[in-house]
Amino acid sequence: MGLSKKEFSAYFHAYYRPLCLHALHYLGNTDESEDIVQETFANLWSKQPSGGIQSVKAYLFGAVRNNCLAKIRDAKTTVPLEPGYIDDSLTIEEEQERADMESRIWKMIDELPERRREIFLLAKRDGLRYKEIADLTGLSVKTVESHVARAMQQLRQKDRGAYLFFFA
Amino acid sequence: MEDNERKWKEAIGFVTKHYKENRFNPDTAWKQFARNRTLSPGIKKQAVFYRVAAVIIVLLISGIVYFSANRNETLLASIDGTVYLLPDSTRAILQKDARLEFNSRFGETNRSVKMRGQIHFDVAHDLRKPFIVITPTATVRVTGTSFEVDESGNGTQLRVTSGNVSFTPIDPSLSFACTAGMSATYDAAAKTIAVVSPETRLSVDAMNETFAFENVPLKDVADLLEQFFSATLSIPEEEREWTITTTFNRQDLHGIIEIINLTLDSHIRVAE
Lengths: 168, 272
Prior knowledge:
Chain A has about 170 residues and is an all-alpha fold. Chain A is about 75% helix and about 0% strand. Chain A is built from seven helices and no strands. Chain A is elongated, with a radius of gyration of 19 Å. Chain B is α+β, with helices and mostly antiparallel strands. Chain B has five helices and 18 strands. In chain B, the strands form two sheets. Chain B has a 16-stranded mixed beta sheet that branches. The radius of gyration of chain B is 24 Å and the shape is globular. Chain B starts with a helix and ends with a strand. At the A-B interface, helix 1, helix 2, helix 4, helix 5 and helix 7 of A face helix 1 and helix 2 of B.
């Protein structure tokens, strides 16, 4: 029996972000990752196996992985892959756990106050030193330091419950 | 646990390296997905027809859609007491010459507005989407409450009528929780903050590294010190509501904690 629209929507909302992050490990590009995930969901909807799917999550993760590898083989990636980008040592379950954790972190960064997020990303994503960020934003170095420390604190505290549950 | 810590750090590193705002959002993606595809198995041919038609229509109007997607809405007031209802049913009452601005994507992931002048807000409750007021000198964050923000070129003042409001000046970036009857005032030039309630007063002079407490509970003192010094403090549960009235001028964290403990015979500790 196939998935109803309601069930499909629930799976889409639950797994979309983790699957995008899963694809990102292969492709290194956010646009292409979202395209692959959307294609995967579209294929799932239009070609639902007649016997049903035992685990939709495992199916989706496997399908995204295969679609990414096919894309890499077709050499259509716009960003060259870094050496060792694909970690073959992880099992499917470990890849799923990693994607779930990364998804929670992504969402928590979304929820940071705008100013704090901006400074946190300047430091952690763009690699600017605190002094450079202070010069760029007109803030004191101490304030920049405080923003980054608070952001890390918030990410740790919010994820602690899930982190301990999954990994303790 | 070491392995888990390593995994967490790797995950943080990976996400921050690739993070882009408003990406990988399932709500936004679902709207696009459901709009672009007919979600009815077994009518593929019809779906293809509609898909092609939709693509043509999208191409025809894409310039207009793209232009309007990120347009800002601006609300102005030529007289005192001008009332506006925002898309989420929040009521904003603008005094003369006040200005309120929000993006056309307001309400999708959060409810963020920018303002100048004096505005009173009655914020519609939505725990999932904080209501965020941004002035040039401070950020105010709530989930549903009634408060007033007065922004001038020199700073920002907050007065809370009901509910819980978080007030964060731009520099120093310290967050204060304000409840009904409290006010918070930030002077941008002097970099001073004063948070006042009917029973307490707390002030910070960031340039001179001075903290002044009048009848402030130790839990609030600790919260401020944790933020200012990026430290973690522990207070015994029974001591959290003890209050202190004193001023610290250019003291380091350990010095402040020592004085408080000696004064009140409390047992605040700095976590290593």
